[in-house]
Amino acid sequence: MEHESLGRLLSSQSLSTNEQSIDALTQSNEYLKALIEFVTSVIHINSVEEVIWLLTDEIIGKLGFEDCVVYLFDESTNLLHQKSAFGAKNPAAREILDPITLAPGEGIVGQCFIEKQAILVADTRLERDYIVDDSARLSELAVPIVVDDKAIGVIDSEHSQSHFYTQHHLNTLDAIASVISTKYANVSAITRLEQTIEELEEFKKLQQAIFDVAELVYLSSSLDDFYARLHRVLLRLVRAESFFICLFDELKDCLEFPYCFDTEMGGVFDFCIEREDFPRSMTAQVVLSQRPCLYQAQDIANFFQKNKIILRGKLPHSWLGIPFTTVDGVKGAVAIQNVSEEVAFTAKDSELLVYVSHQISIALKRKNDEALLQHLALHDDLSGLANRTLFLDRLKHALSRDVRSQEFKTVIMFLDLDRFKLVNDAYGHQVGDALIRAVSQRIGECLRGSDTLARLGGDEFAILIEDIEQIEQVEQLAQRIIQALNSPILLDDISIMTSASIGIVQSSCHIHQASEMVKLADNAMYQAKADGKGRFVFCRTDQESLVVDVLTIENELANAIEKRQFFLEYQPVLSLGDEKVVGFETLIRWQHPQKGVIYPDFFIDVAEKSGQIIEIDKLVLEMACQRLLIWQQEITTPFYLNVNVSSNTLATHNFLANFIEIVGQFELAANTLNIEITERALIDNLKNARVLLRSLKQLGHKIILDDFGTGYSSLSYLHQLPIDVVKIDRSFVMSIDESEASLSIVRAIISLANSLHMKVVAEGIEHDSQLAALRALHAHFGQGYFFYRPMGQEAAHKLLDSQVC
Known about the structure:
Layout: H1 2-19, H2 22-42, H3 48-59, E1 68-74, E2 79-86, E3 101-102, H4 107-115, E4 119-121, E5 139-147, E6 150-159, H5 167-219, H6 223-235, E7 242-249, E8 254-262, E9 267-274, H7 282-289, E10 293-296, H8 297-305, E11 318-325, E12 331-338, H9 347-378, H10 388-405, E13 411-418, H11 420-427, H12 429-445, E14 452-457, E15 460-465, H13 471-486, E16 489-491, E17 494-496, E18 499-506, H14 514-530, E19 536-538, H15 543-562, E20 566-575, E21 581-592, E22 596-598, H16 600-610, H17 613-634, E23 640-644, H18 647-651, H19 655-663, E24 673-677, H20 679-683, H21 686-698, E25 703-708, H22 714-717, E26 725-728, H23 730-733, H24 740-755, E27 759-762, H25 768-776, E28 781-782, H26 793-802
Parallel strand pairs: 18-19, 21-23, 23-24, 24-25, 25-26, 26-27, 27-28
Antiparallel strand pairs: 1-2, 1-6, 2-3, 4-5, 5-6, 7-8, 7-12, 8-9, 10-11, 11-12, 13-15, 13-18, 14-15, 16-17, 20-21, 20-28, 21-22
Helix pairs in contact: 1-2, 1-5, 2-3, 2-5, 3-5, 5-6, 5-9, 6-9, 9-24, 11-12, 15-16, 17-19
């Protein structure tokens, strides 16, 4: 368009050269020079406003015009606005005298804009649409500025002389308008590009922040850590001087603020708002109404004047609060505020905070699930006491401290109620359960605050006593417990007489394992029962009695490894949806030449202590690969084998190389050999375990976490590791149909696994009621005696054959 306008201008100049005088030609050349000057100057200008002021400041006067005004259309007002001027309308630099606005179609300028055609009025006295601006003039020339067939403005010039404007004037202004439209298009394109780049940068920043926030839910070690990290991420997106998170505590009937940051008040603090102050709290109104609120300075000032807000520090200039409700029904809100007037929050900030509030609700749900899961995993649901897992963990730490200090001050008691079975049989399980709770209370009343009382199961209890200075203290405690339990216990108008037999063991340099110490206390307890019940017996140990059996097993294991006296059995893993076998867990057995088949419970602990487990794991892996290869050649049904790898083996520096060497001897199908590991294998060396497991996954092997739920440390690490499957420990599965606590644990594990995109295998299914409960919770897979016991290779082969479609 610009070139066409210049062409018309040059053509009119050639024509006028032939028809007009030399003076007219000279004038035309001046016009052309002015136009070229305008085009040249415009090149270096990057805004349309600068271009049109250049036109009126530098060019229009050289065309011999008395007056000129440039109008630009404003879409927000739908009006043409005067944006630059020459002549009487421009009394001072970049100033427009009494600027007016015109609607499209109004006056000569409005018609020119609508029609997108130049209008030349020879005598305005004859033009009824002529509109007088600053003063009446006799002729007018209006030329549209058009970009992509869309009018964006008008160049309008008026003259005191009628019939002043010629076709040559029109062509000149048309060429100028064309230059402006081209510049407008270029500037708009650059502006759009810059805006797009800026939006992309903002979007990238937002996406990264959203990813970071979502990741925090799994990376944070605690809710306090999550809140602090969340605040740091939010500061990258929003300038907020204060950041608050509050939760409504229904029991206390108050608003608690677990995280508050306020620049004015000097950092992080916490506080609560009581019920009587709710009407004067903006945060409380957000929580109770569950509606977002965005308040600016005037709103907040009005609230303050009407005594409707609680003021802490200075009056906010801008305040934004977003509510949330967790899946568990906990109500809360997240709020930000600024005291300074520099930044006021917008609807965009509100959208961001809605996402943040959603992540807070997810984090609260996850942390509450973890807390519940940890509590249930570590406590007995009937008595509320520590369970075996927690007891052994505390005992292990106590023994480690004894070894470091070489001061053996740890003692445990193993208690078993006498005649408990008679109570259950005579009065039923309800009375038996009540007796367990009453006994727990009586024993607890005899203990120090630092002692740990645990229920190991049934009517068995254990007590961990640390920092014992004299053994007489233990004897006195045992006597107090026996006396406390000798008194009748009244339950539902039934007077129950009971007593306890107690076995006691003190730590020594010869005891290395917590389970070993519990076993010794258990033996002492049976000795107490044999001696007449209702009494306590100390277990005295020496090095020889503890070591002889271990040395025998180690020697026999060495011979078994050399002669490959091990074989595998296979326990099917089934899909709980259709009860189809999808794979097997491989289980090691020792074919002892004199003692027959020996199960791993007898020798695995010894093998792990001696380091022989590493060679045993190699043999198991090799046998599993051999069997897998044979079955893959004979059976078309898809299946897999799970191989257990001990923490000792996983920790060896050359484990991965040995694994690749063994598996590489067999051409196994992808995703058919899975690796089962325990929590201990993870916690002993988390960093190395993470690298190792990722390498195994890259080789095409799924990772299964065994016995999940019996420990608690893995909850903090689970999301950091490339785990594919978690196996729920059989202790929870076996009581899922009877114990609400076990049901809650299994539900929490499945929920956690689903959130981390992991599958779940339930171990130890023995009854149809357990299966029904697991199906109701949407557990994916299961194994147990209800389906199949561990079987030999021939039986496993036939089972797979029977499933061929």
